[in-house]
């Protein structure tokens, strides 16, 4: 099988950088091997799609700002008729494709289409607010909150996975550019580069 | 009499334990931590601080804050040189370097001061009149000299070595200004429990409270307020931070200055940070600015605003002068006189009003101040410093008063700049004699002096702050207002000298605009304040008329015989104070100037000798080292490879869109001019889509992989626009269609394997896939899993050769690319770059981005026959407009160069053989190349009348090169018109 390669391949051995005070307040890296599916719902197909995916994904979330978390999967409603399913078994796409009536909705794999970056540490919020116009106050952007936003003119999706830990789904073709901008913004705080982690 | 400064041994808010050394024009000077550059220079008896803008008159400090019009210095040196910084706002730090500006050869002896004697030449609007002749265009000659003579400091041309940052902020209540009202508002809002952000441009909190003595109860009040606010964890206090603009949606932009902390760019520390804040409520608490009085020679060094004199005394422990004249029209300046008298200075107080309240008179008497009521300052005298003034007391002869300092106060103007940025024009309040903010928009309020409050500013701030907190849903107890003595403004009706003055009486100090200039503007018909501003430059410059606007408005109102309220105010625009370009650019410089897009194969290209080229946001391989060291020759070798063998190129940048759904076929039929519903599964079709107005938007191929699933490709350049267009149509026009569209550009790596050996190459590379003509004919498509990878194979040709497009998931792109190169290496396969890719299509006559420029119709591009006559599609009706079907439109042709030693050039203007070579010609060359097949320079072009001129000889002119080349109009399809190669 052809080897999967990250858009950030050449940064794997980056030594990181000390911040202005000599410390490294952040860990920044990539989660490799993320399964990402988009569920699309056709006009008039919402009820049938919801029923079809219920056994596989559980209830589709109504919220467009909070991810539903179940069985190691994250489901985010990214538009009125579109959902992202992050993580899950290797055969999930095939099973969903089989379950969803062709007249009601569709499944598209976006595996490899996004580079899943993460930033972790007490300065993560400060760094992100150098890049993203989203209020990350915990009272407003809680854990599992997400927002479709952008970094440096390029769209992407920000997800908060824990206090002081965020993930950003960057377009793969802009991933290196986004990564470099992220590291530059993190420069005053200091960071270490995390080796790729496998995420299911 | 010479102005001198005494640094008092006690008092002030300076740290005498921490001396700071700085350099002023090469001289080593010393002052204290807590000084501004202005107070530091004054402490070193530097009073002559610059020369004025136009007349090069000697100028000293006028204020102690952001309103300073005169004391602009150049700070730093080398690459860190920053001109036009008000010394009054620059916090002193160890090692600061500064110099004066706008004088030659020196500020002390400035030859350019001759302009002051030529004032009649340089009157308002002089550049519209005096320097317009003798010939048309003379101004262009004079301008460079005038600009050199006038003006401010000069910036460096060196790259800025410092780092600048930007960030976003969010808060519930944003309070701009930390004077008494701002602090009270922050205390109340903070206690209410919401998120509060308090901005202060100074490095100390307190605003006008800082003018009071450190021994006074006001200092206790300031310290208590600051401690209260600082103790609230939900209140963020930002010092050295200036709000520079207020925008719609309760958005405020501010700049945080870190220079005094000597940030180290090597550590990522920013010199300045530009912050965009979205607030839920804004409380303006910018306070008020003191107005100067207008009298003859009111710009002499040693004439300062009364509040500034008091600030220098009580904040910086600097007593300016010994024999001091206080000239005022309101109560506030009396405190300056009383404080100065307490230091032993001899103080005379001239108040224009007939009387003052008894307590003030008694305080002045006790302080030993000579008070002259109903007395106006007529004219000051002096050369490089004030030495006295003529006073006019009602009913008495003018009297000369010798003095070395004049502290003037013409009343107060609320700082309405920021409050006006969103279009809320200030209105005149005739009770306080000043412009106040217009009606507050929703979510915005004003606390204290900025709102023209007559009441105690602390109580007003408390009320407004708690109200703002409630408006955002905070329900905590704001507590009681601060007890203590009321802190009120010394509002006054402005009373100004309105006569034409014999000596210069300045209204706008920074732009050298005098009362006479305003009168002249009026006499020449420039009565509107906006016209006055543009005619005289009043209110322009770095201070944006902070001390001049109201006086000018009042003077003009009097000249027009109207009241000040009717004359209105000029338009205030951001920024409130000057902003460095570095702060605006932030981190978006160098490699981060704009985002860069890389294909999944980028690293391979770089590692294998590709020279990369920018194509929009993309970096694409231009040509490869194996083919040569120069693009001009390498692309020819790469083309030969494709025409004679097999090459592989990276086509990942093509836009790719999944179109799925029961109505996908109907959807495609509507967006493309040709049919797609009839496209069989397993086939692809070339399609063209139009804009609403009938102009070609884009082209590409669409493949049908199942009944409901299509894979659409766009040009690289139009990918985003097409995707937006499709979403727009589905979400607005055709909401009933059961269709989903999704950009999968980033999902798939694409590569084209082209050339007569391409089938053999892929058979070696993908042995499990049947690529025969029967299994995969031209325009056939198929899906497979090969070597564990999902693979899409599309038999399409952009080059005109037998060719295949291979798509695999982006993360497997390099693996597939390397596998094809390795397995097909016996056939000599090599990569080819963008230059060859784009040239191959020219030979074949395929249009691309250079021809699809949003100006051409189907017919212009030779594609008219594609349009269906049986179905509706976007742009169908409007493409039939007369202008778009005129026979003489520029349309696509091929060109062959007739001069064997010459070459055609992109952009060349086309003329018929008999035409004179001038003007826009009959068309232009869009794409050009050297054909390795035809052994000549060929081109695609747009030419009036198009192929109706086939066979004609024309001239291709490149005026910038002075070059004319002969060419013949031919079919744009230069090779293989029958399509034998691609069907091979």
Record the SSE blueprint.
The complex is a heterodimer of chains A (200) and B (984).
Chain A lengths: L25 E7 L3 E6 L4 H12 L10 E3 L2 E7 L2 E5 L5 H8 L5 E5 L4 E7 L3 H5 L17 E6 L2 E9 L2 E7 L3 H12 L4 E8 L2
Parallel strand pairs in A: 1-11
Antiparallel strand pairs in A: 1-7, 2-5, 2-6, 3-4, 4-5, 7-10, 8-9, 9-10
Chain B lengths: L4 E3 L7 E10 L2 E7 L3 H7 L6 E2 L6 E2 L12 E4 L6 E5 L10 E3 L14 H4 L8 H4 L8 H12 L13 E14 L3 H12 L4 E4 L17 H14 L4 E4 L2 E7 L3 E7 L12 E15 L3 E3 L12 E3 H9 L3 E3 L2 E6 L3 H10 L4 E6 L6 H10 L2 E3 L2 E8 L3 E8 L5 E4 L2 E5 L2 E3 L2 H4 L6 E3 L4 E3 L7 E3 L10 H15 L34 E3 L4 E2 H9 L5 H8 L12 H12 L3 H4 L13 H5 L11 E2 L3 H6 L2 E6 L2 E7 L6 H14 L2 E4 L4 E6 L3 H8 L12 E7 L5 E11 L2 E6 L4 H15 L6 E4 L4 E7 L3 H8 L15 E6 L2 E6 L8 E7 L3 H11 L6 E2 L2 H11 L37 H4 L4 E8 L11 E4 L10 E9 L4 E9 L8 E6 L4 E8 L14
Parallel strand pairs in B: 2-8, 9-10, 9-14, 10-11, 14-28, 16-24, 18-19, 18-24, 19-20, 31-33, 34-44
Antiparallel strand pairs in B: 1-17, 2-3, 4-5, 6-7, 6-8, 12-13, 13-14, 15-25, 21-22, 22-23, 26-27, 29-30, 32-33, 34-40, 35-38, 35-39, 36-37, 37-38, 40-43, 41-42, 42-43, 45-48, 45-50, 46-47, 46-49, 47-48, 49-50
Helix pairs in contact in B: 5-6, 5-11, 7-8, 8-9, 12-14, 18-23, 21-22
In brief:
The complex is a heterodimer of chains A (about 200) and B (about 1000). By secondary structure, chain A is of the alpha+beta class. Chain A has helices at about 45-55, 90-100, 125-130, 175-185, and strands at about 25-30, 35-40, 70, 75-80, 80-85, 105-110, 115-120, 145-150, 155-160, 165-170, 190-200.
For the biggest sheet of chain A, the summary is: 6 strands, mixed
CATH topology of the largest domain in chain A: Gyrase A, domain 2
End-to-end gap of chain B:
102 Å
Shape of chain A: globular
Weakly predicted, low-confidence segments of chain B: none
Which CATH class of the largest domain in chain A applies here? Alpha Beta
Low-confidence parts of chain A, pLDDT < 50 over ≥5 residues? none
- Overall pLDDT of chain A: 94
The assigned structural class of chain B equals alpha+beta
Instruction: Give me the Rg of chain A, rounded.
Output: 18 Å
> Any idea what the CATH architecture of the domain at 163-288 and 415-471 in chain B is?
3-Layer(bba) Sandwich
Order of helices and strands of chain A: EEHEEEHEEHEEEHE
CATH superfamily of the domain at 163-288 and 415-471 in chain B: FAD/NAD(P)-binding domain
Count of beta strands of chain B: 50
Separation of termini of chain A?
19 Å
Mean pLDDT of chain B: 93
Fraction of residues of chain A in helices? 10-25%
* Number of strand elements of chain A: 11
How does CATH name the architecture of the largest domain in chain A? 2-Layer Sandwich
């Amino acid at each position: 099988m052809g080897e999967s390669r990250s858009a950030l391949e050449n940064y794997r051995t980056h030594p990181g950088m000390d911040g202005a005070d000599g410390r490294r307040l952040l860990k920044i890296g990539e989660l490799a091997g993320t399964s990402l599916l988009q569920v699309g719902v056709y006009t008039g197909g919402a009820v049938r799609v919801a029923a079809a995916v219920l056994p596989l994904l559980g209830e589709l979330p109504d919220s467009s700002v909070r991810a539903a978390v179940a069985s190691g999967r994250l489901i985010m409603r990214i538009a009125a008729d579109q959902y992202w399913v992050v993580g899950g078994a290797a055969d999930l796409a095939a099973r969903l494709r089989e379950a969803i009536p062709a007249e009601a909705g569709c499944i598209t794999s976006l595996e490899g289409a996004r580079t899943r970056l993460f930033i972790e540490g007490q300065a993560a919020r400060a760094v992100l607010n150098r890049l993203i116009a989203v209020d990350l106050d915990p009272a407003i952007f809680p854990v599992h909150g997400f927002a479709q936003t952008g970094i440096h003119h390029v769209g992407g999706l920000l997800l908060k996975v824990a206090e002081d830990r965020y993930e950003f789904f960057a377009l793969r073709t802009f991933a290196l550019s986004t990564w470099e901008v992220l590291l530059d913004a993190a420069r005053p705080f200091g960071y270490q580069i995390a080796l790729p982690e496998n995420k299911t | 009499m010479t102005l001198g400064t005494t640094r008092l041994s006690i008092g002030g808010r300076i740290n005498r334990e921490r001396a700071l050394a700085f350099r002023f024009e090469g001289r080593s000077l010393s002052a204290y931590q807590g000084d501004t550059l202005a107070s530091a220079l004054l402490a070193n008896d530097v009073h002559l601080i610059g020369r004025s803008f136009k007349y090069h008159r000697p100028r000293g400090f006028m204020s102690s804050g952001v309103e300073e019009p005169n004391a602009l210095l150049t700070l730093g040196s080398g690459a860190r040189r920053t001109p036009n910084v008000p010394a009054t706002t620059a916090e002193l730090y160890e090692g600061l370097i500064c110099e004066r500006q706008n004088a030659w050869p020196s500020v002390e002896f400035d030859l350019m001061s001759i302009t002051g004697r030529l004032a009649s030449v340089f009157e308002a609007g002089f550049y519209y009149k005096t320097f317009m002749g003798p010939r048309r265009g003379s101004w262009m000659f004079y301008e460079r000299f005038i600009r050199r003579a006038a003006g401010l400091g000069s910036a460096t041309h060196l790259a800025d070595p410092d780092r600048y940052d930007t960030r976003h902020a969010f808060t519930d209540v944003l309070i701009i200004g930390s004077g008494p009202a701002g602090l009270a508002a922050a205390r109340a809002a903070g206690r209410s429990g919401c998120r509060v952000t308090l901005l202060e441009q100074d490095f100390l909190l307190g605003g006008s409270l800082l003018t009071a003595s450190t021994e006074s109860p006001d200092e206790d009040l300031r310290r208590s307020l600051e401690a209260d606010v600082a103790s609230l964890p939900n209140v963020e206090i930002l010092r050295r931070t200036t709000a520079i603009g207020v925008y719609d949606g309760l958005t405020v932009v501010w700049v945080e200055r870190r220079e005094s902390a000597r940030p180290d760019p090597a550590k990522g520390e920013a010199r300045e940070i530009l912050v965009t804040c979205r607030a839920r409520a804004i409380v303006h608490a910018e306070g008020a600015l003191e107005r100067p009085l207008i009298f003859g020679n009111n710009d002499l060094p040693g004439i300062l605003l009364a509040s500034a004199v008091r600030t220098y005394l009580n904040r910086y422990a600097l007593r300016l002068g010994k024999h001091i004249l206080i000239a005022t029209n309101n109560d506030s300046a009396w405190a300056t006189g009383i404080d100065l008298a307490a230091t032993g200075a001899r103080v005379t107080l001239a108040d224009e009003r007939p009387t003052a309240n008894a307590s003030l008179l008694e305080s002045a008497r006790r302080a030993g101040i000579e008070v002259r009521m109903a007395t106006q300052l007529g004219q000051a005298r002096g050369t490089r410093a004030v030495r006295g003034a003529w006073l006019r007391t009602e009913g008495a002869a003018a009297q000369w008063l010798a003095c070395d300092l004049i502290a003037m106060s013409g009343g107060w103007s609320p700082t309405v700049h920021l409050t006006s940025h969103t279009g809320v024009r200030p209105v005149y309040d005739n009770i306080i004699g000043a412009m106040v903010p217009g009606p507050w928009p929703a979510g915005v309020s004003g606390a204290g002096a900025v709102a023209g409050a007559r009441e105690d500013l602390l109580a007003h701030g408390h009320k407004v702050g708690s109200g703002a907190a409630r408006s955002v849903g905070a329900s905590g107890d704001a507590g009681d207002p601060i007890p203590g003595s009321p802190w009120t403004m010394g509002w006054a009706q402005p009373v100004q000298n309105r006569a034409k003055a014999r000596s210069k009486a300045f209204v706008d100090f920074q732009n050298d605009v005098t009362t006479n200039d305003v009168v002249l503007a009026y006499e020449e018909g420039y009565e509107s304040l906006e016209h006055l501003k543009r005619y005289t430059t009043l209110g322009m410059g770095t201070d944006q008329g902070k001390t001049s606007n109201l006086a000018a408005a009042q003077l003009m109102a009097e000249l027009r015989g109207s009241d000040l309220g009717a004359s209105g105010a000029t338009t205030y625009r951001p920024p409130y104070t000057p902003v460095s370009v570095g702060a605006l650019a932030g981190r978006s410089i160098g490699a981060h100037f704009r985002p860069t897009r890389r294909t999944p194969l980028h690293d391979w290209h770089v590692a294998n000798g590709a020279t990369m080229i920018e194509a929009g946001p993309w970096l694409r391989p231009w040509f490869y080292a194996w083919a040569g060291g120069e693009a001009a020759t390498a692309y020819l070798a790469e083309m030969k490879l494709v025409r004679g063998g097999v090459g592989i190129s990276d086509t990942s940048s093509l836009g790719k869109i999944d179109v799925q759904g029961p109505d996908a076929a109907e959807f495609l039929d509507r967006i493309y001019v040709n049919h797609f519903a009839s496209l069989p599964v397993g086939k692809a079709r070339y399609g063209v889509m139009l804009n609403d107005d009938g102009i070609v938007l884009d082209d590409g191929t669409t493949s049908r992989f199942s009944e409901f699933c299509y894979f659409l490709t766009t040009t690289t350049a139009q990918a985003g626009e097409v995707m937006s267009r499709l979403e727009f149509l589905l979400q607005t026009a055709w909401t009933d269609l059961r269709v989903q569209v999704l950009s999968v550009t980033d999902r798939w790596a694409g590569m084209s394997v082209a050339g007569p050996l391409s089938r053999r190459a892929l058979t070696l590379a993908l042995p499990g896939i049947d690529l025969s003509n029967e299994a995969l004919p031209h325009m056939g498509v198929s899906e497979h899993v090969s070597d564990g990878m999902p693979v899409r194979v599309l038999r399409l040709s952009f080059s005109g050769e037998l060719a295949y497009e291979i798509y695999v998931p982006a993360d497997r792109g390099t693996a597939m690319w390397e596998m094809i190169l390795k397995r097909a290496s016996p056939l000599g396969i090599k990569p080819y770059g963008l230059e060859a890719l784009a040239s191959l299509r020219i030979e074949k006559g395929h249009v691309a981005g250079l021809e699809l420029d949003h100006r051409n119709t189907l017919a212009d591009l030779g594609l008219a026959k594609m349009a269906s006559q049986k179905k509706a599609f976007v742009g169908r009706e409007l493409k039939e407009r007369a202008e778009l079907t005129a026979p003489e439109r520029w349309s696509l042709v091929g060109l062959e160069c007739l001069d064997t030693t010459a070459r055609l050039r992109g952009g060349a203007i086309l003329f018929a053989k008999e035409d004179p070579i001038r003007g826009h010609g009959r068309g232009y060359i869009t794409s050009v190349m050297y054909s390795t097949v035809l052994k000549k320079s060929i081109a695609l072009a747009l030419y009036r009348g198009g192929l109706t001129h086939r066979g004609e000889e024309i001239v291709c002119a490149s005026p910038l090169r002075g070059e004319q080349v002969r060419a013949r109009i031919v079919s744009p399809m230069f090779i293989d018109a029958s399509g034998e190669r691609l069907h091979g």
